[in-house]
Structures are given as structure tokens and as C-alpha cells.
Amino acid sequence: MVKSLALLMKGDQYGTRIIENLCSRGFSGSLWGLHEFEEVPPLDVVLDEPEAILPRGLPSCDLVLSLGLPQELQALVPTVAEEVGAKGVIIAICNQDWLPPGLREQVKDELEEKGISYAFPKPFCSLTKTGDPVIDEFARSFGRPELEVKVRDGIIRSARVLRGAPCGSTWYVAEKLVGLPVEPREVLWEELAKAHHVYPCLGSMVVDPELSDTVLHVAQYLLREAVEKALEKEGF
Asked: Domain boundary residue among 139, 169, 185?
């Protein structure tokens, strides 16, 4: 079992929701530690003296999950990972401000120098297996949505989540799909989008230059793609 350490901001809805979902899906035994930052230090302090603000007493673990940290604290993640002996790091990017391209390359270089594997999924629900065993164990259950549906008389009778978004939206939407007709597709996609918004998805609604769209919309497209693939397997 991979031992994970989650890093998040105290009181922030994003990280809290993910932790709650991971625990409700049977992943609580793998959460070896949880650290909530209470304040954001200046970026120059993080870059010049990371050891001075490094959290103390963190447990040794295999995987570090960065959940919604501001960029000032993302710069600290490689130091944290080295300190706890982590073999892998996953930094969720559901807002472009969390890890801008320039800082992402810097963090990437630091992790490579330390021999630590990494994944920077944008959005978090785009995560797939990377070939690294530590990251892949997490990505086996959480990341890019994968569903199995059963259809009878043109109606979705059941929807089972094989792999879901870390925030839990896939399970919520799957419940809302049951009882819906598979045609016309436009109506099905409208209902899916409505459920995705109501959950609600916590992805940014600001257009991301790298995605040429908002993170929230990309997350919704991934979910719709998962439903489409599941329907195709059923012959629809």
C-alpha cells in the first residue's frame, strides 16, 4: 500500500473536498499524513530559505499530494518530498495560478534532480497512469473518469464508476445518469453538464492559455468522453 501525504490550505474547500472523497472511497488507509498550511509566505523566502518554513514532524511517505496550494507553497513541494522520502509527487492544477508554466518547469527540474517522479495533471481529473508504480497506484482509482453503464430499452439503468475524479464529481454525476435516455445525446449531455455544475466542479472558470478553454469545461469534456465510451461498449 502506497503511503501518501496530502498538503492543502487550511479552510480551503478544494483540498478538503478531495480528502473527504478519498476517505469515503476507501483510500483513508493510504493517507499517512495531512498538513494544512495556515499562511502563505513570500515566494522569495520559499526559494531562498525553504528549510526555514518547512513543516516539522511530517511522516515518511511514498507519495505527496499537493491539493490547491498557491504557487508560493508549490515551490516548497520538492523540499517537502525529499524531507519525507517520497518517491512520487502529484500536483493538482485546477487553477492556472497554482502552478504557472515557468514555476512548473522549475519544480519539475528540482524533482528530477532529487530522483522523484511527478505528475502535474490539469485538471486533476485528467490524471492517468504514468508508468511509475507509486503514482499509478493512486491513478488506478482516481483521475481520468472511467465508467461502466447498463442500458435497457434506451434508458441508462445503472452507472458504475471504475475510476473517478478525485473531487468525487464522477460518482455524483453517475447517480444522476440513471434513468436518463441515451438519445438524443444533446439532452443527455445537457443533464450531465447540469449535474457537473451542481456538484459543483471546483475547476477554474478562467480560460487557461495552455488549454484554450477553462479547466471546468475540460473536466466536463473528460466526463462526457467517459460516458460516451461506456455507452459505445453497450452498443449505443
From this structure: 139
